[in-house]
Design brief:
single chain, 93 residues, alpha+beta, 1 helix, 3 strands, 41% helix
Amino acid sequence: MKLKHNKPQSTSTPKSLVPMTSLTSIVPTTSSYPLAIILKEQASLYAFKDYNENAPAITFTFDNQKKVKEAVKKIAAKESLLFKAKIAHDNYE
């Protein structure tokens, strides 16, 4: 059984989704897209791009986000102490 793959018709289609021929069941594909999902009665087959390509970038982003949050907390704590010291200094004068 040969499958004909349609190219995306518009640029509004998300890059991770590539519309393919209408099928009634999940069929393994020979392309570089390993996963396929059938959506309800339309039985439209969407192949998802291999997520392993994006996993390192996503992991790097989350690690950086965690580091930034920790740095912001430390800076906020120091600024809070400086602000309290300034208030105490102003009250002393």
